[in-house]
Amino acid sequence: MGKLENKIAIVTGAGSGIGRGIAEKLAAEGATVVVGDINEAAANETAGALGNDSIGLVADVTSRESVDAMVAAVTEKYGRIDILVNNAGWDKVEPFLQSKVSDWDRVIAINLYGTLHCSQAVLAVMAEQGHGAVINIGSDAGRVGSSGEAVYSAAKGGIIAFTKTAAREMARNKVTVNCVSPGPADTPLFAGISAENPKLREALERAIPLRRLAQPADLANAVAFFASDEAAFITGQTLSVSGGLTMS
To answer: Has keyword Oxidoreductase (predicted)?
Structure first.
């Protein structure tokens, strides 16, 4: 038996990249996964590959109405939500002085507001049922900064701070809230960023003590731990999964 047997999990942005890796790991550990993604085809394709009665649902995390509809559909179908992984994210890399307010709005809407929307909707369910685990995907950019990612760093720093407060408020309901902070990861998002700067990958691999970018599975393993009963007495914590690039 897996350590997440019979758990109901929502993973946002799970149609590709880190989110899909997380969904695959949770399913492998026995969870039924709700694959939330703005791309309906990707959500359904991922869910179909997972088994365990997993389903894909369209979810635009920037829209509270869309998030509420997803959560209502999950509770109606399964009756509870045991795990929420706030993974959906987006970034545009450029110097802050060259960045546009419209891009700030999108970065904050997807990364920070998306986490807030999903958390408030799902934590209400978890508070009523008296158990649950929320795992937010932060970033080491939000812990130590990252050149070219000023607003993304601000949004992810906000997620890290929100994690701590949500953990304090939800503890009485036996709900844990933790944060996994990736360092540079080998994802479609990174591929798009590095396409404009071919030397970026090589430079990062030299800078990371373990000499490689994170793979989705590296992040998924940390998320699965926080989602499991093994982490029942851990809350309000941020775990960097960065190959040693950052250390605290």
So the answer is: yes
Average pLDDT, the chain: 95
Which residues have a Cβ under 8 Å from the Cβ of 163 and sit 6 or more positions away? Answer: 136, 138, 177, 178, 179, 236, 238
What is the rounded distance in angstroms from the CA atom of residue 187 to the CA atom of residue 193?
10
78 is catalytic: no
Which entry of 113, 152, 162, 190 is annotated as an active-site residue? Answer: 152
pTM (2 d.p.):
0.95
The three-class DSSP label of residue 37 is: strand
Structural contact between residues 236 and 175, judged by C-beta atoms closer than 8 angstroms: no
Task: For residue range 216-238, list pLDDT tens digits in order.
Answer: 999 999 999 999 999 999 999 99
Q: What domains, with CATH codes, occur in the chain?
A: 8-184+216-232 (3.40.50.720)
Residues 90 and 196: their CA atoms lie apart, in Å, by 16
